[in-house]
Amino acid sequence: MSAKPVSGPMCTRASLAADLRTLGLRPGETVLVHSSLSSLGWVCGGPVAVVMALLDVLGEEGTLVVPTHSGDNSDPALWSNPPVPEAWWEGIRAATPAFDTRTTRTLGVGVVPETVRTWPGALRSSHPQTSFAAVGPRAAAIVDGHAPVCRLGERSPLARLEESGARILLLGAGYDSCTAFHLAEYRIPAPLTDNSFAVVTPQGRRWVTVRDTMISSERFDELGAAYEKERPVLRGAVGGAGARLFGLADAVAYAEGWLPAHRPEAAGI
Known about the structure:
With 269 residues, this protein is of the alpha/beta class. The protein is built from 9 helices and 11 strands. It has helices at residues 13-23, 46-58, 89-95, 111-117, 139-143, 157-163, 180-185, 220-230, 248-262; strands at residues 10-11, 30-35, 42-43, 63-67, 123-124, 132-135, 167-171, 192-201, 204-213, 234-238, 241-247.
């Protein structure tokens, strides 16, 4: 059986950097990146080359931020992809390793965030499920203070990114990946829910449950499409991927108006 042919385009660190500059990414800015490596084509150097290209464009004064979520540190009773037998639930709650900013791997956000997580000088926020990692001079200010009772709200890096005037880069990813829209859910506000995870406490590893805002990415693709029709979004190609670049604060403000009108049940209306 022959191997599947490699598909293009061929991308390099230099070609990706050139495409990012053409799109509108600028030195010195802070950018939150959601990415799909496979959408870029064949990348010489893989995810390392992608991170290098982003840092090349941002320069020494710019800051790169990515989601480094670890959703498997959660209540197995809520798992659906795939579910696990109910007989296992208590064992999983007892044995799940506590979140550690240094060693807990990412899940479901792609290989580029995992690469940033382990990058020299990278800092990571401390939420057991929805952490972010950052590289650059603003990294500490963005990731510090991520509260365990606030996955993606006012006490998360999203609010710090909003304050810093950050932009969002969707690099082969869709609006359904746009975590910033969740910040709007905290401001509607949405109903509260129980949220459980394993953490390290002064007494050692513990399984804890907190109350937090209920979040959902349902209809985020529609929200993004509506936003793009009405607000300024830079669009272009980076390698073989479609890319979008836009202001985080503007996107959150738009979502604050759109979500109650189009998802009133999720907003508790």
